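Could you help me review a protein record that somebody else here produced? This is what I was given.
***
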Amino acid sequence: MIKILIFIFLLSLDLFTKFVVKNYIDLNHSIKINQFFDIVYIQNFGVSFGLFSGTFNYWFFVIIGLLVVFLVVYLMIKSNKNIEKLAYFFIIIGALGNIIDRAINSYVVDFISLHYNFFYWPAFNIADIYITIGIIMLVVGIFIKVDNLK
């Protein structure tokens, strides 16, 4: 039951932040938080870093995303390591957040902008953070024998 509540909370947090940005910040407008961090409303019509923007219909990305989610669910079920299961859990939440956003809007709302001087990392969102956390956990799990998470 607690896993379902965490799932709902994390997914809702992602979708809520995207809703707020979309409805209260002008497109391509930036709000400076500090010298390294801005909130900016970007519409990402592609995949990571805007790759393949305009190349495919957004439903193509929705379908591919759902297929990937099914694969990750399968990997999570087959895994016998708790750290891997948790990593897949985060990846699934992040992927579903972006899939839902794309299905509703035909694009994904990105809004976190990190930079140093004139060097900018492409904008991203909370779902991307979940996916990144999951991937880092998988990589760490390969190199470190950690499986005492319950």
